[in-house]
Amino acid sequence: MLTFNANTTHSNQHQPWIFPCLKTLSCSAHQSHTHKRKTRTRKNRQVEMVNLVAAQKPLLLCLMKMAGIRPHTIEIEPGTVMNIWVPCETLKKPNKKSEKSTTEYQITKPKPTKPVVILVHGFAAEGIVTWQFQVGSLAKKYSVYVPDLLFFGGSTTNSPDRSPTFQAECLLKGLRKMGIERCTVVGFSYGGMVAFKMAEMYPEFVEAVVISGSILAMTDSISNETLESLGFSSSAQLLLPNTVKECKALLKVAAHKKLWFPNRLHRDFLEVMFNNRKERAELLEGLVVTNKDVAIPKFPQVLLGNFIELISQAQKVFK
């Protein structure tokens, strides 16, 4: 730091050489300040380039491993693979000494020591993002599996079938390949419709179903009435947002409580969570059926609480 006392300042008028020096010091200070400002700007730009939603995934992976589950990719059939978060004890580490070994963990197919629970996500996010706050608590008493439905997370298929029935079939095949014989399925929103299909088609496999924010089937009348009441022209406009404004509108509809997030976080969420847009739009089209094509199934599973009310409401709607 440079300091000037009063005497020195007053004597400047008799020492003209000091002005060029002061000018040089001033220019150096300005250049230093400009450099620091540019450095800060560059750092801010680097921070802005980091996608916050993508950046939290390694942390989420670590937390889920601590909770006892990790991701595993399984081939359902040629051209169709599903990513499923599975209990760590069901996986065997690769043998590094073996020539045939790979870096992939292998399913050991042990008999589950705890009841099996399958958590099926909705349309707005992949599996572990949807259920991250429930896994830790449930894993204490249950063997928890969190699948990514087709075209979410790492799951994909070359099949043209986009129906919830196909999703249910693929999920069942994947779970059976991992040695699961009976389970409880928990479905949210879109995942609820897949869970209903699993319970309907495979009653010997699905012991119980828990549904939140879903219906038995999306008929054209329900779809049109719902979209009109929410102010959207199509399901894709609601569930496949392209802008921050549309993303906020989806959050407002989906969340029970009013939540606020900065625009930056909405942009990052849009970039990470809404890939495979073409295929997901086809999934939405595959959801809608006509009223006459819907039959209320008789679930052999025990129906408690809201299930009875849900079924009775569905029967009134589909008549």
TrEMBL record:
Residues 115-222 form the AB hydrolase-1 domain. Keywords: Hydrolase. The keyword Plastid does not apply. The keyword Cell inner membrane does not apply. GO terms for molecular function: hydrolase activity. It comes from the Eukaryota. This is Epoxide hydrolase 4-like. It comes from Olea europaea subsp. europaea.
